[in-house]
Amino acid sequence: MSDSWQDSDFSFGYMEIENKEKVPEASKRFHRSVYGKESGKYLGEQGLFFPLFCLIFGFPLIGVGIFAVVTLQGDGQVVLSGIGFCFGGFCNFLAGIGLLAYFTGVGPEKGMMGRLRGDDGWDDYYE
């Protein structure tokens, strides 16, 4: 009885609704899912726009800092090199974290900085 009507595939009529599970699709083309390093929880999605924008903005600022150290003298050298190295370095640091999270799929968890292993993060002193 392998050829019975119960074994054959049939389509639902227009009045009946087929109950299918929806598969989550990627929301955007250049986004990757990021998971926490310690717990493995889903943290969100990381795109390429912000890290690449930081790189495009940070490298010229570091170039300004190098230009200031090499060619300028006095207060201009201090101000431009400080702006170049501080803001350019910070932008490149953010870009590095974003690109690392994008390519590896692992990112830093919020509120996990400085926490010991096994510590749940709550203060038990005020109970």
Question: If you had to describe this structure to a student in words, what would you say it looks like?
Answer:
The structure is a single chain. By secondary structure, the protein is α+β, with helices and mostly antiparallel strands. The protein has a domain of 60 residues. The chain is 42% helix and 11% strand. It is built from two helices and three strands; from the N terminus they run ββααβ. Strands 2-1-3 form a three-stranded mixed sheet. Helix 1 runs antiparallel to helix 2. The longest helix is centred in the C-terminal third of the chain and has 30 residues. The termini are far apart. About 4% of the residues have low confidence.
Can you tag this structure with a few keywords?
127 residues, alpha+beta, 3-stranded mixed beta sheet, 2 helices, elongated
Gyration radius (Cα, Å) is: 27 Å
**Strand percentage:** 5-15%
Query: Sheet bearing the most strands, described?
Result: 3 strands, mixed
Distance between termini?
A: 69 Å
Uncertain stretches: 19-23
What's the tally of helices? 2
Question: Quick one: overall form?
Answer: elongated
Order of SSEs: EEHHE
What structural class should be given to the helix and strand makeup? Answer: alpha+beta
Residue-averaged pLDDT: 77
Strand order in the largest sheet: 2-1-3
Q: How many individual β-strands?
A: 3
Residues in helix, %: 40-55%
What does this entry show, briefly?
With 127 residues, this protein is an alpha+beta fold. Helix content is 42%, strand content 11%.
